[in-house]
Design a protein that fits this description.
It is built from four helices and six strands; from the N terminus they run H-E-E-H-E-H-E-H-E-E. It is of the alpha+beta class and 175 residues long.
């Protein structure tokens, strides 16, 4: 048997098709965001990155004094809305739902670092007291980041609450 006879061609073709769909999604999203920046008369560069089959789009600028922060809003509300609008633009153009993540001026990166600290503090408190620790409400994406940190530490976490009051409760695993 030669090396080429061992290739699972249908699986390889599916992977290539999936990567192409993600790339197309990123390009549609980037075009939409470029138009938005033009309309708002804001400068920014758009970076597209594919990680784990998911599209990550960042709007960045090299200038210190920028108005990109106005696209983030307080606690990222405007950023979340822009991300949903971008996902809708991708759905309209491709017919496929998108799970892309939009970051503007490094807000999500900075917030992820803050959330890791919050998770580590909750882990420490739960271990010291044995009590459940309730965290502040956060978005589904933020909760996923925190759940991952807590799971990696060997503790239990679950989401409680509804809508904008949905939050994580951290507890020590029962033995």
């Amino acid at each position: 048997m030669t090396a080429t006879e061992n290739i699972d061609v249908p699986e390889l073709e599916t992977q290539i098709d999936d990567d192409q769909e993600v790339l197309d999604e990123g390009e549609v999203a980037a075009d939409y965001l470029e138009e938005l920046l033009d309309i708002a008369d804001l400068d920014g560069d758009i970076d597209i990155e594919i990680r784990g089959g998911r599209t990550y789009i960042s709007i960045v600028t090299e200038e210190e004094d920028t108005f990109l922060d106005s696209l983030v809003g307080e606690k990222g509300e405007i950023l979340d809305a822009l991300q949903e609008l971008t996902r809708l633009a991708v759905l309209t153009a491709t017919g496929e739902r998108s799970r892309l993540i939009l970051d503007i001026a490094g807000y999500r990166t900075s917030r992820a670092q803050q959330l890791k600290k919050v998770a580590k503090n909750a882990i420490e408190t739960a271990r010291e007291t044995g009590e459940k620790v309730h965290l502040e409400p956060m978005s589904a994406y933020e909760r996923k980041l925190v759940h991952d940190v807590i799971a990696d530490a060997g503790l239990h976490s679950e989401s409680e609450g509804e809508s904008t009051r949905r939050h994580i409760v951290v507890s020590v695993l029962d033995s």
